[in-house]
Design a protein that fits this description.
There is one protein chain. The chain is mainly alpha-helical. The protein folds into two domains: 145 residues, Up-down Bundle (Ferritin), CATH 1.20.1260.10; 136 residues, Ferritin, core subunit, four-helix bundle (Ferritin, Up-down Bundle). 66% of the residues lie in helices and 0% in strands. 37% of the residues are buried.
Amino acid sequence: METQQQDFNQAKQQSIPYNAAQDAPSDERLSAFELGQLWEGYMADSAAKCILQYFVAKAQDPEIRSVLEYALQLSTNHLNTMTQMFNSVGFPIPHGFTKEDVEPNAKRLFSDSFMLTYIRYLARYGAIKYFTSLTTSIRPDVREFYNLCVDEIQDLHKKVDEILIKKGSFSAEAYIPVPDRIQYVYEERSMYKGIFGDKRPINALEISEVFGRLESKLLERPIVLGFSQVVQSQKIKKLLSDAEQVLDDNAQRWGKMLRDEDLPLPASVAHEITDSSESPFSDKLIVFHVLTVFGYGLTAYGIAIASCTRSDIVTAMNASIAETMAWAKDAMDLMIQSGWLEKIPQATDRKQIIGLQ
């Protein structure tokens, strides 16, 4: 506990790496890649800060609260650094999400265990985003920032895992026999077969992806269900109900696949939601966050397809992508109609300037 508090204090006091933007040459522009990643990161961290403020306020376990405080301080530091970088090129600071979008004093909606597990889920996709941003950035201070973010997210993930293991809150894992020799594939059909006729056994990479997708859906559904309990708008309730249906369909698809292979299923955490109907977040933040979660799902499905070769698994992944994208369009439409969707930085419309549009 003392070590975790020291880590939190260290993150809070850290200033040298986060001042890197002040040393950037005043005439060095941000590339389109850098600007896009920073803009997206600012939106995500401003939303995460609101969610973490509520989580910290509601956490009862001291060890879990300490890790949540550490995550909150990281998001705050990131926002400060990205603000400096935007200012270095005169880019307007995104509105994102502020104290207007969170009510830390609202009733408790999720258990401590769920909040910690959910942070682990967000950290997993944060790592993908940070590494992508690092490998597409050129400006030295931007690269230094994302390099630090990669280190921090690994550290956060480690802290979360240590507590989950200590408290026995990890989901069951799938295991397969260790092969006694190297084997090669000699028949193309046996490699890809899955929709018609006999299916080959699912391989280790496919197990990882199918298990991971089910684990994610079982975690995403309670957050959507919890939000459904507290929103007042009937239109948003309907949108979230549709999101639950998409997640249910996805979960049933992956659960059946694992059961057919006699493999274990990750545990459900649906019981980790309270009966509160008092919203801790604005409707805008709720819709944005669920949309972000569905975006993470699309990223995961894209990665999974590249790792899977059995045709029925690839077909199921594509079906899940189509369902997810259909819901995401409805959510985007609602955000546009509500005046909530900030415009992503875009290229100059030359035709409009010339007068051809």
